[in-house]
């Protein structure tokens, strides 16, 4: 199962290593498993007779057979040694006393896993741990006892103070406050806090160093506007990174959160506006379709009625619409036009404006008095009519909705809604 390597060969291989040849202490007789290493304080003698066996981390197959499903009900142990138990069952159910390299939880039965040693497994696990730590943000938590009797909801000030002094937490906090407790690369800093810049500024057109300076300058202006004290030396820009204190980090994260929330609110308002417009368009289109459907039904019904009488009415009207033939007599219309001297191809003229107006059930002739409801200024003459002033209305204006008002010898065009008719008192009444 394992390569036939003895301690003599292992000692010889170690002697040819540059790290140990200068520190080796011992005799040249390699038959002895003893060898010495000279450390910086004193020399230490080691016994290599059990080095290889311990490093192999092997396990006998008769011990593995105990964890088989037929003899062990502990499912976790069955799963832990499933690869070795599977290879053991293929060779036979009876243990043969062989030493096997156990690889728990590997999930594979490759020869490389079986030939690995304990030191190699430790090295691989340590490399994996360092890889995880390098790709994550490490946070260190220090636990402090509240009391020595482990009672709940009991705080012993002396015990806690002694632990804080021993852990040097006060000195650590002072060091973080006085120094630069945070460091970020240029790309990481600009990628996280570029939202603090103005909207018209692009990151691709500038160098990362200038962008970092612009972000810090914007932060300083914002702090001064909000009344915060920005002490010199709160940050520093290096060759590859930006260094800043904890207070500056809190301000940066706060302004970043405010900008992001404002941008999210703008996006939400725009999205809700689009939804409302779509809903309004859909509702309007449905109403339009309903109106078109009703209009089409009315048209179909009118076409059906006209189709029934088209045969008898078309010949009598000389090509005119049947409805015209039913409502009008063409000869009578011609005789009427000849009697009054009208032309059938020219529309009659509009009647002249009436020399009066109607107020309720009363006829009010021109001229008459009216009272201004509100102030009015004429754009052409610049005259101003004040509220409550009495004016003389001499007639109707050619403009629609206007009246001709005489004011200081000039005629003004005043809207009728700006005035109200002064109704004369009824006979037999007095202004008491």
Describe the structure.
- There is one protein chain.
- By secondary structure, the protein is α+β, with helices and mostly antiparallel strands.
- Helix content is 45%, strand content 16%.
- The longest helix has 68 residues, at 246-313.
- The chain is elongated and about 155 Å long.
> What is the first-to-last residue Cα distance?
131 Å
Beta-strand percent range: 15-25%
Let me know the largest β-sheet: 5 strands, antiparallel
For the residues shown, what is the average pLDDT?
Answer: 77
State the helicity in percent bands: 40-55%
| Poorly predicted parts | 105-109, 308-326, 426-432
Strand order of the largest sheet: 16-15-14-11-17
Care to count the β-strands?
17
What is the CA-based Rg, rounded?
Answer: 52 Å
Shape: elongated
Output the number of helix runs. Answer: 15
Coarse structural class:
alpha+beta
Question: Which features characterize this protein?
Answer:
single chain; 432 residues; alpha+beta; three-stranded antiparallel beta sheet; 17 strands; elongated; disordered C terminus
């Amino acid at each position: 199962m394992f390569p036939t390597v003895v301690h003599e060969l292992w000692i010889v291989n170690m002697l040819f290593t540059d790290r140990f040849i200068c520190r080796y202490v011992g005799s040249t007789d390699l038959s002895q498993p003893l060898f010495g290493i000279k450390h910086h304080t004193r020399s230490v003698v080691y016994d290599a007779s059990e080095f290889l066996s311990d490093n192999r981390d092997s396990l006998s197959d008769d011990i593995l057979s105990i964890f088989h499903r037929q003899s062990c009900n502990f499912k976790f142990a069955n799963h832990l040694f499933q690869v070795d138990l599977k290879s053991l069952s293929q060779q036979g159910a009876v243990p043969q006393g062989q030493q096997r390299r156990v690889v728990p939880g590997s999930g594979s039965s490759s020869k490389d896993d079986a030939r690995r040693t304990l030191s190699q497994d430790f090295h691989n696990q340590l490399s994996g741990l360092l890889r995880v730590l390098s790709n994550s943000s490490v946070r260190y938590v220090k636990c402090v006892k509240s009391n020595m009797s482990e009672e709940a909801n009991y705080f012993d000030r002396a015990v806690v103070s002694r632990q804080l002094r021993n852990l040097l937490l006060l000195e650590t906090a002072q060091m973080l406050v006085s120094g630069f407790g945070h460091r970020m690369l240029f790309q990481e800093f600009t990628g996280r806090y570029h939202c603090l810049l103005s909207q018209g500024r692009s990151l691709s057109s500038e160098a990362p160093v200038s962008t970092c300076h612009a972000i810090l300058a914007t932060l300083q202006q914002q702090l001064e506007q909000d009344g915060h004290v920005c002490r010199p030396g709160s940050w520093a820009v290096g060759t590859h990174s930006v260094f800043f204190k904890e207070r500056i980090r809190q301000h940066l994260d706060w302004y970043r959160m405010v900008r992001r929330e404002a941008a999210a609110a703008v996006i939400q308002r725009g999205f809700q506006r689009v939804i409302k417009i779509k809903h309004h368009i859909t509702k309007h289109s449905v109403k339009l379709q309903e109106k078109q459907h009703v209009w089409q039904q009315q048209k179909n019904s009118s076409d059906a009625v006209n189709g029934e009488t088209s045969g008898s009415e078309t010949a009598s009207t000389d090509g005119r619409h049947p409805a015209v033939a039913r409502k009008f007599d063409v000869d009578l219309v011609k005789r009427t036009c000849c009697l009054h001297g009208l032309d059938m191809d020219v529309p009659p003229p509009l009647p002249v404006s009436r020399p009066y107006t109607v107020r309720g059930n009363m006829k009010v002739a021109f001229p008459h008095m009216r009272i201004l409801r509100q102030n009015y200024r004429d754009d052409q003459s610049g005259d101003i009519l004040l509220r409550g002033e009495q004016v003389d209305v001499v007639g109707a204006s050619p403009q629609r909705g206007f009246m001709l008002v005489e004011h200081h010898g000039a005629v003004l065009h005043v809207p009728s809604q700006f005035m109200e008719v002064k109704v004369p008192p009824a006979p037999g009444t007095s202004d008491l």
